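Tokens as discussed.
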């Protein structure tokens, strides 16, 4: 394989990366507004619609519960409640640990806030995973949604009784329990929601029970949503749309909410779609790029469904309210998609690290992440850790790099002989002539002990590393908001001033100028074109990826200088030895 084919292989590989990025990786969606579906016939506006076409925030509880059968009073069999048990006023309960602060309301015993203490959004504000949509609609995670009964609407608005401290602090490995209870004699309805927290984990154990007419309800559909807050900006090369990822049989099944086609509702201003993923799942995650809320389920009993509501905001715009509904969840993990943190709950959530999508080269990306995190333990800066890891990679690949350069230098020295062979077989359109030419060229390679593919292997090996770095820096929360120096304040974002991409292009050009070439005009043109193409492409990639490639080029320039010196010295020694042999041969002949 000559240099021209090598560069062509790189161009094709880079093209694959670009196509994958723009066509298969979800684009950033900030804020969550989408165009209305113009293909669907719009329903008549309801009385709630204003003259401008903008409607107020919908009553989510009513929308989710529409067209569901209601139990009539005559259906009651035996009273299951001896007395009412409900609070007089709405109150909040706060759970405070080293990792998060969770706030519950006793109205429906829902989660109104979940602030991560060790993570911020891109604006530097506290990262609250309970969405603004939930707060606007007063519909919170852990509310019920029944398809068989109207108890969910009653319980979601009920004032549960809570007896205990309103601020619960949990330290270390302590565990504490929150219990919310409700009983309504008139409705023959009781409900208990029990939450168990640990001071050193993002895991919340759940135990929900509802009894109606003296009988326990077997299937309790619990909602997470609407949405999972995502305040990260869109200036990253890839951002995941909000989606469900359900795990069964060592595989993930996903539902991207923004791609669901909603259907107009008769006499209403909103559109809606409901779907089911069935049962058999070990867990179901409600996730964004860096964070997730994951319900643990019983694969034999639990069911997973979802709903998406599209509410008009203005002309050609709408807001999505999306919900994950799981029956009888046993626990919830809510927090960052960090490898170490996910591994800590592996017993409860098997293979939970699968929610971090490293792409085709996931195995390589994970190995590199472990190496960078290990170095970061000694260097408290991920930028310098990335540079040191790049140096390590270059040292490991040096034998291959040296072998490649020697092979390319030999190929360069063979150019006059190869041109003579090609000149000999001018009519390359003749298949027989072409076959003879190729056979003679291969014989030349064999005679000179040159591997034509020897110069390609090291560069081809770097492509999986490059793609692995791209995914790692795009999805790993370890490098999110991690600075390097000066203007590089986030290695997961692009360079705001494009300094690193330009330096990457310049160093790439210098490195290519130093490398041995075959002297072909097309190769020389590609040598000038490739750095420009790569600079433009890398401009939107994470600054950490540009840092890796730029520093890798700098090291390659140094390596190439040493290799060229060594090759030049070896060539001189060989020429000197040949001259000595010729002299000896001449002396013998005399």
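Sequence:
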């Amino acid at each position: 394989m000559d240099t021209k084919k090598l560069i062509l292989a790189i161009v094709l590989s880079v093209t694959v990366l670009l196509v994958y990025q723009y066509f298969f990786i979800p684009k950033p969606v900030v804020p969550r507004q989408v165009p209305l579906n113009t293909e669907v016939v719009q329903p008549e506006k309801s009385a709630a619609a204003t003259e401008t076409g903008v409607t107020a925030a919908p009553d989510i509880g009513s929308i989710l519960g529409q067209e569901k059968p209601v139990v009539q009073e005559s259906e009651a069999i035996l009273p299951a409640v001896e007395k009412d048990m409900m609070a007089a006023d709405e109150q909040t309960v706060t759970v405070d640990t080293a990792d998060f602060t969770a706030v519950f309301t006793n109205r429906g015993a829902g989660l109104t806030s979940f602030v991560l203490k060790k993570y911020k959004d891109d604006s530097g504000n506290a990262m609250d995973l309970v969405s603004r949509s939930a707060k606007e609609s007063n519909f919170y995670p852990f509310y019920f949604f029944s398809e068989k009964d109207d108890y969910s609407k009653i319980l979601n608005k009920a004032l549960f009784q809570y007896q205990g401290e309103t601020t619960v602090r949990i330290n270390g490995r302590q565990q504490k329990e929150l219990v919310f209870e409700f009983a309504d004699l008139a409705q023959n309805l009781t409900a208990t929601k029990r939450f168990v927290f640990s001071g050193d984990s993002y895991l919340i154990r759940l135990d929900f029970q509802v009894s109606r007419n003296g009988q326990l309800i077997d299937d309790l559909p619990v909602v997470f949503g609407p949405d999972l807050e995502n305040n990260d900006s869109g200036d990253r090369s890839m951002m995941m749309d909000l989606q469900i990822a359900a795990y069964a049989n060592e595989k993930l099944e996903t539902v991207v909410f923004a791609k669901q086609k909603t259907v107009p509702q008769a006499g209403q201003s909103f559109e809606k779609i409901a779907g089911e993923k069935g049962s058999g799942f070990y867990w179901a995650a409600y996730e964004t790029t860096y964070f997730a809320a994951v319900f643990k389920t019983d694969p034999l009993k639990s069911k997973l469904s979802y709903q998406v509501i599209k509410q008009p905001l203005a002309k050609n715009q709408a807001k999505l309210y999306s919900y994950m509904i799981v029956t009888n969840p046993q626990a919830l993990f809510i927090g960052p998609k960090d490898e170490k943190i996910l591994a800590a709950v592996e017993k409860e959530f098997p293979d939970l690290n699968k929610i971090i999508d490293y792409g085709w080269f996931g195995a390589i990306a994970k190995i590199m992440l472990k190496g960078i995190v290990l170095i970061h333990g000694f260097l408290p800066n991920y930028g310098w850790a990335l540079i040191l890891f790049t140096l390590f990679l270059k040292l490991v690949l040096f034998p291959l790099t040296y072998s490649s350069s020697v092979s390319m230098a030999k190929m360069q020295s063979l150019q006059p002989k190869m041109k003579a062979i090609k000149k000999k077989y001018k009519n390359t359109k003749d298949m027989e002539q072409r076959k003879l030419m190729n056979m003679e060229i291969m014989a030349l390679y064999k005679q000179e002990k040159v591997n034509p593919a020897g110069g390609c292997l090291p560069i081809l090996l770097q492509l999986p590393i490059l793609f692995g770095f791209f995914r790692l820096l795009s999805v790993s929360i370890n490098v999110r908001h991690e600075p390097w120096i000066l203007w590089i304040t986030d290695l997961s974002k692009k360079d705001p001033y494009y300094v690193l991409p330009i330096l990457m292009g310049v160093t790439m050009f210098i490195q290519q100028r130093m490398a041995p070439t075959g002297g072909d005009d097309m190769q020389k043109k590609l040598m000038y074109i490739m750095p420009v193409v790569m600079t433009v492409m890398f401009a939107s990639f994470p600054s950490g990826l540009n840092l890796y490639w730029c520093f890798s080029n700098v090291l390659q320039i140094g390596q190439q200088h040493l290799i060229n010196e060594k090759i030049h010295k070896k060539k001189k020694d060989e020429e000197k030895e040949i001259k000595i042999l010729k002299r000896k041969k001449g002396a013998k002949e005399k």
